[in-house]
Structures are given as structure tokens and as C-alpha cells.
Amino acid sequence: MILNSAQFTFTAGWEEYLMMVLYFLVLIGIGIYAYKQSTANLDEYMLGGRNIGPYVTALSAGASDMSGWMLMGLPGAMYATGLASGWIAIGLTVGAYINYFVVAPKLRVYSEVANNSITIPDFLENRFEDTKGTLKIISGIVIVLFFTVYTASGMVSGGKLFDSAFGLNYYWGLLITAGVVVIYTFFGGYLAVSLTDFFQGTVMFIALIVVPVVAFTELGGMEAFDTIRSIDETKMDIFKGTALVGIISNLAWGLGYFGQPHIIVRFMSIRSVKDIPTARRFGIAWMAIAIVGACFTGLLGIAFIDQTKHNVEDPETILILMSQVLTHPLIGGFFLAAILAAIMSTISSQLLVTSSSLIQDFYQMFRNKTGRNDHIDQEKLDNHLVLMSRLSVVLVAVIAIIIAWDPNSSVLDIVANAWAGFGAAFGPIMILALNWKRFNRQGAIAGMIVGALTVVVWIVAGGFGTDLYEIVPGFILAMIAAIVTTLMTPEPSERMVEQFDESRRLLRDYK
Q: Which residue ranges traverse the bilayer (predicted)?
């Protein structure tokens, strides 16, 4: 079948605007619902009272993880280089799956045993009895800096989506994206973020099934792959188009899962460790199907563009283009909402994690050290901390908007390395903290610093003449530094050992 290239002229009509308005109303409605259900204290606002079900947990983790990368980045990479880009999808899926075994159940139990920790820095401080607050400060700084910039990149994406799809001024698109996310995050906290992620993950899932299926049908089924081979045979070979170093680097993306604060915090909020196997099966199934859909969308886009003779300036817009051409305007509007869903799900998660770090890891620590919490009852303190958390959401959003105000900001280059930074700084530390009784505070500090610095140095040095992804040396050196430093320093206290054993005992009881 030959598609008519004239169909490519796209101007947003009332159908697209209607779907977008309905989408925004649903998100705000979820925020209001969550406000009434789960914002009585800081634990509820930041972790939903540790009462989130397995399906919401799984889809929330997936949606906040994949963001616009799944609907724009991966299809664009597959369109540009073919199946060789599939290695990153394999690495991410395997990494996410292993994360459900290595981190999820142990973190859910241990974070509660460790003085009911509600943030990753909070957990590290309690796990290692870091009375000086060194771990909390270092990890808190890393989270606040990286996620503020990361949040800005999502807002830039939202602004550009409104600009390209609706012809709306970039700055208005930026403000609308930020405004809607802030509203439901401000009022509903973690529960709102999780529920909206569930909704957004569903929208993304549908889009990544429908678009490639429709495209496959319209392009003549298996004939589409013959067309791709005739254009460039290497694009149908997963081993061509990239060297061994490239394959290793793409697979190494999976290492990042063990240290992403906005993902692993989901494991702390799940209702019970017994729900984790259900969450794992549901979450990985969602992820695998969605990633395959994204890959096929980009791959079929090669044949699609060849038949229509359309010039694609930005490969990452291939899904937008195909969804608008191949479907009814109402469905096309739904798919535009899916792309915005991917962007917003990550922004909201990053806003909340950054806010929780500011309040729990800095503000609350300051109040405790100055004695300001000594003469205030718990209810008033809870109300005050929730209010400050909401205000910090607004503060982080405003700073992110300022950073994102320039649509050509180099912030996107920095964010491209954020995954590696978090993965190398936190990944080895979390694995060892949850699985090695001997691991101590000194080892955790050394590992975190070495991991973060290695990634920064590797980026600045341009990979030292290699194409190796910076998370590989960062993760390896951080793990070595953590283990060696631990073995060279005193053993952990008796209380730390008892706490570790208690978490393991509870984990066995749950099983």
C-alpha cells in the first residue's frame, strides 16, 4: 500500500484540543482525590502511607522511568539506526527485572525497619547510623541538583510538544505543562503522582500498541520489512551499525535501575512485600510490550517515510507524525496526550523526590539540630512539614521553569548523563547496603563519591577517547571503592547488625 504524502499536513483541530483538555481535567481530578485521601502527614504525602497497591506501584515505576524516552527517544533511535538500537531496550528490561529481586523486597522491609525512612538519603543515614549527616547531605545534594535540571528538561519537552503539535508559543506550552503537573503534585503528593502515573502509563501502553499495529497493516504487513531491507539492509541486523563497545554501553543502561531515586522509592511505598511479585510480573510485562511497540514504531517509520517521501528533520518526532497521519483526529489527540503523559509522569516524580529531599534531608534535619521540633505537638509538626513540602514543589518547579526558559538550553546535554550519575552514585551503594551485613558508613561514602566523580570526569574527558558509556566505569569503580573501604575500616556497630538481621527475618516471615 502506498500512502498519500499529502496527508502529512497536520494542523491541530478541535478534536486534539478536546482530548488534551479532558486529559488535563482527569489529572487535576486525581490530584483532588489524592488530597482528600492521603496527605495527613509527611509519610502519607511523600510515600502514600506505604499503602500503594502492586499494579499502581508497577505502572508508576514504569511510567516515571520511561518518560518521553519511550515515545520519542527510542522510536527516533530505531528510525535512525535500526535494530542496533534495540540493545538499550534489552539492557533496560533486564535491569528493571533484576531490580525487582535485588532491591525491591529488601528495600521495602529495610526502609521501614530503619526508623521508617521515607527518602533514599533518609534510609542511608538510618541504615549506617550516620549521626554526622554526611551521607544524607551528599546524597541530598546529588538528588536536588540532578533532578532540578532533569525536571527542567521535561518542561522543555512539554513546551516543544505544544509548539510543534499545536502551534502554541513555546513559553505558553512550558507554563501549561509545568502548571498542570504542579497542581496535582502540590495537592495530592505521592498518591496523586502514583495514580496519575498509572493513568499515564495506560495511555502510553495503548499508544505503543495501536500505532505500530496500524502502521504494520497500512504498510502491507511483512512487506514493510522487505522495504526496510531494500533501503538499508544493516538496519534489520541487530549486530550491525554498532561496535562491541556500543553494545556493552547500551546494555549497561540496565545498571542504572539500582540507583534511580524516583524509581526505587516506589518499592518503599508498596503496601506489602508480598505484593512485589505481582508488581514485578505486571510491571515487566507492561515494560516489555511497550518497549517492543516503541522499537517497531521507529523501525516501521523507515518504510513509512520511504513510501510517503516525507522529510523528517527530527527522528524523535516519528511517532507523532505516524499517529497523526494514520488515525482519526480524536485518536491522534489521544496519542498526543500519551506523549505528554510520558513527559508529565517523570516531571511529577522528579518534583516529589526533589521536594522530599529538600524537606526530609535538609529542612527537617535543620529543625532537629536547632531544637525547633522539641516544643511542637506531632499534629502541628505534620501539618507544617506537609505545607513546606508543597511549597518546595512550587519552588523546584519555578527554578526548573527558569532553567527551561531557553528552548535551546544545554540542560538537555546534562540530563543525558543524569541516569549514569544516579546509577553510579547510588546503585552500588543500594545493592551493598541491602545485601551485605559488613557494609559500613565509610564504604558507602567512598562508593557514592567515587561513582559520582567518575561519571563527571568521564564526561568531561570525552570518555578518554572511547565510546564507553560513563555508567560502566562509574559503577565498577564505585563498587570497588565501597568494598575496599569497608574492609579497611571498622566493622559496623552491633545495632546496625541487629537491624540488618531484623530486616532479613521480616523478609523471611513475609515469604
A: 17-35, 76-98, 137-158, 170-192, 198-217, 238-258, 284-305, 387-405, 417-436, 443-465, 471-489
CB–CB of 210/74 below 8 Å? no
Within 13 Å, how many C-alpha atoms sit on residue 150's CB side?
32
Q: Position 72: which residue type?
A: M
For 69-104, how does the pLDDT look when each residue is reduced to its tens digit (9 = 90+)? Answer: 777 778 888 888 888 888 888 998 999 999 999 999
Nearest to 68 by CA among 246, 297, 319: 319
So what's the architecture of 21-406 in CATH? Answer: Up-down Bundle (1.20)
pTM for this prediction? 0.80
| Nearest alpha-carbon partner for 215 in 150, 133, 299 | 299
What distance in Å separates the CA atoms of residue 129 and residue 120, rounded to the nearest whole number?
Answer: 14
Rounded alpha-carbon distances, angstroms, from residue 448 to 124, 442, 451? 11, 10, 5
Grid coordinates belonging to 493: 556497630
Residue 2, pLDDT above cutoff 50: no
186, 180, 178, 177: which is closest to 35 by C-alpha?
Answer: 186
Specify whether the CB–CB gap between 279 and 100 falls below 8 A: yes
Q: Do 162 and 170 contact (CB within 8 A), yes or no?
A: yes
Task: Give domain limits for the chain.
Answer: 21-406
Confirm if 155 and 400 have CB atoms less than 8 A apart: yes
What contacts 308, CB < 8 A, 6 or more positions away? 3, 4, 5, 7, 8, 325
59, 263 contact by CB (below 8 A): no
Q: Is 270 helix (H, G, I), strand (E, B) or coil?
A: strand
Task: Please name which of 75, 72, 27, 14 lies closest in space to residue 328, comparing C-alpha atoms.
Answer: 14
Q: Are 29 and 166 in contact (CB under 8 A)?
A: no
Distance of CA 128 to CAs 116, 136, 445, 494, Å? 14, 11, 10, 11
What mean pLDDT comes out for the span 467-492? 95
Residue 240 pLDDT: 73
CB 321 within 8 A of CB 8: yes
**Residue 400 contacts residue 152 (beta carbons within 8 Å):** yes
